[in-house]
Prior knowledge:
The protein starts with a strand and ends in a 12-residue tail after the last helix. The radius of gyration is 24 Å and the shape is globular. The chain folds into 2 domains: 3-66, no CATH class; 76-363, Alpha-Beta Barrel (TIM Barrel). By secondary structure, the protein is of the alpha/beta class. Helices cover 32% and strands 16% of the residues. The strands form 3 sheets. Strands 11-10-9-8-7-6-12-13-14 form a 9-stranded mixed beta sheet, covered by helices on one side. Strands 2-3-4 form a 3-stranded antiparallel beta sheet, sandwiched between helices. It has 13 helices and 14 strands. The chain has helices at residues 32-39, 48-56, 68-81, 116-127, 148-158, 180-189, 202-208, 219-232, 249-262, 293-305, 362-371, 393-401, 415-424; strands spanning 3-4, 8-13, 16-21, 27-31, 60-61, 86-91, 134-139, 165-173, 193-197, 237-244, 269-275, 328-331, 336-338, 352-353.
Amino acid sequence: MYIIGLYTHLFKRGHIGYIYNAQSGFFGKVEEELIDILSNRDWNRIDTDTINYLIERHVIESEKTKYDFYNMQNLKFQSRNYDQSTLGLVIAPTTACNFNCPYCFEPKLSPKTISSEKISDLIKFIRLHENAKRLAVTWYGGEPLLAFDKIKEIYQDLKAEDLPRISSQTMITNGSLINEEVCNFFNEVGLNSIQITIDGNEESHNKTRCFKTNRRPSFHIIYENVGLVRRLIPECKILIRVNINKNNVQDFIDLYTKVNNDFRDDSMIRVYPGLIREDTNDGRSLAAHCIQSKDLIEINALLREKGILESIFPEKQTRGCMMFSQNSYIVGPEGELYKCWNDVSVSDKIIGNISDVKSLNTTLLTRYMICCTPFSGKCKDCKIFPICDAGCGYYRYKNLFENGIYDQCSALKEDTILEKALLDGTLSEIVNINPD
């Protein structure tokens, strides 16, 4: 007749029963007896109104609808990925950087900057996407503002009448080279958002994010530039990323507090934690000091204790990554094309070049787009699928094809952790259901 919903979790604490459904987000407090009735599928003991109430919240459902949510999510995921109306380009005009951060790939590379010839090839490449009506651009690096003149050159060419209109522009920068000229330009062209990394309080930041040439600290320069962007590009959302591992969570708290005090909780500025991902020496898993899913529950509790409203558990996920999108690319300074941010400047992860679109690394491309999606693994029967992003496609690839052992699953799969996360949070809905 009915089954317990695939994404339903039933549990007790003392003589109180709890029902959680990850699909609907319903979290209810019920009489203990109802948990037993539902667990035993004793449907005749539940009145019609209660049955309908539970069905509406996907706590129970019919067997034939068991995978409806999963299948619809897969359908939406595939529809977005193969929609050709928007062309997404992450453009790295240079791989050079003026910083020497210990966790970054760039210091190991020979920096390159895009040429005018490659800019011309980029425009031709965009024209090949005849079905694209919109162009979403992200400026990336290296440090993109080291090639500010190239950005302006590219932008002028992107404004050609026969190209898709630019629907959004974002930039990822270390923030050290921002000045009035840069701000005035991006204000004029309509920069929608800018991501700037500040690694915690001044002391912590200056240990890792120093200028390459003279080890000069950068905190004050970048922090003042945040204010400059806020003043000169008023419609631009400012995302301040704080790179953290197990050892420096307090740095995020310090900077979050400082920014919200200095900018008086400005809605256009958001400070968020960025989890540093550093590999072990054998390249098979994350290093021990990196924050894993199981660590997030304690971090979340600490943030709540400090009054910081950064939510980590549990919320419904939207899955998406340019790795899986047919019409999204990262373009390197030599015209090379990538599908993942982590692959920039890694020669064997190049899928092609804007100058020769017929020569593709189809093995890598199809592995990324088909084998590594959130719908290609063992997630179909997982009760927390709606609130899990199914992990990173990059690490899924390494597990599948490079002997990786990266833990991709959310710690919420464990009942005790899920229950603690729910009970430590705010109930989204409190109900009292009488079984008889």
